[in-house]
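Internal tracking record. Fields below are filled automatically when a chain is submitted to the structure queue. Please do not edit lines marked as system-generated. If the sequence contains nonstandard residues, flag them in the REMARKS field before resubmitting.
Queue: standard
Priority: normal
Entity type: single polypeptide chain
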Amino acid sequence: MCTSAQPIEWTADCKNQNFDGLILVTQSHDSLPAELQCLRAPLQDYSSVDSGVGDEMVLLKVPGLPGNRMVYAATGPVNRDYDDVRRFGDAAANGIKRALKAGMQRPLLVCPAHKDYKNSTLVAALGALHALYMPLEVREANIKPSQYKACVLGLWVAKEAQGPRLVELAHAMESGRLAYRDIGGSDPERMAAPRVADYVTELFKDSPVKVEVLRDVKFMEKEYPCLAAVNRCANAVPRHQARVIKLHYCGEGPIQKTLMLVGKGITYDTGGADIKAGGFMAGMHRDKCGAAAVAGFFQILAKLKPKHLKVVGSMAMVRNSVGSDCYVADELVLSRAGRRVRVGNTDAEGRMVMADLLCEMKEKAVLETSPELFTIATLTGHAIRAMGPNYSIIMDNGPAHRTGNASQWQKAGEVLGDVFEVSTIRREDYDFHKGKSEYEDILQANNLPSTLTPRGHQAPAAFLIMTSGLDKHGVDSAKPLPYSHVDIAGSSGPFPGVPTGAPIIAMATHYIIGDTL
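SYSTEM-GENERATED OUTPUT FOLLOWS
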């Protein structure tokens, strides 16, 4: 199993003959810096016969450049109200695809920093690396002699002093996204829960990240009863049995902040007894991208080794199967926090598998230094209905809202193009999940899909707060605990297609590298 990210090299010479082609990503060839003026003339010459040179990707023969060829991938305008740094990543990804089609194996990516987007070079690098990802199943099948689509990706820097840091950041972030894509994108058998545990254990061998894998069913029934209810049917098939994967990182020096992450890892979501009908089951192997994000973020931690930061993670790896022993609507489940939960819809399994792990994090958080709690999940179709694809959604409880956590994540996401929308948890969301009879304290869900439910992506956050007992740690408590729920149903990536890695680039920007960019 190869878990090494795409090899990357840097150079300050755009004519470096160690590469076999050049990809230029910029807004306009008329605004190239002095160091790249040699690229301007051939593009001006080409523009004399093609006025669409800034709108379409072109491949030019340019003697003296690496491989005597250049792909020009213009970003288009980047100065309008609705433009953002993603233009550079998108252009680089398209440029790499064209370069591979042309036969390049050692492409040199040239993206000069833009005056309004100082990190455009790194964003372009991440866009190119996304296009160079080779799925785990393809790598393991040995379809190609190499484990990579290109032998190496070259990155041009204006000054030699910038090179090592650019490569370090690009490699660390791509290593995290590689783990994310491998776990989140691989099929439900290759990344069934036990095999995810094996992958993660191997990934963090000989690293600063400690791994603990929980597999005992009796233990889960006692400690995580809501998760155990979802696992009940899948547990009859050994290769589908649940795993709880715990990760731990502690940086050097006095701890100044503690992050506590819970990721939804539904390896396949049939909907359970409330089965997904009408073709809606296709793509449900991607329902594990929340847990994949937890693993991916820890991989970035392992590479960059930030000081003064402690991170604790739990990956809830469970299959929501349908069969004679599956949990059903109307069941009452007593959560770890002692709340009686009435199941309303077995297709709302994501909040079930995370609730008790969040409760466990809450119990530990009161003893930690400056704790912040998070759940990350491909939780609701409503997130896509509300905000469209490509956008993560973050929403805060009271203590997190008072510190401006959601807006900080949104701001961090804009730096490298891992973008967010902010939603608010309202009193209606808590009312929605209050028990409707004396039998239950909490109603897990109504009987409709989230897409047909008003406030369908906000209400589950209230459920998690109530079921975990975090409602006892709000702004009115003696020990308030900041908690944010992140729904990545829209941003985790298209199917068919490759998972994006959202939101780990924003997380790394906010908690690890923000001040050094």
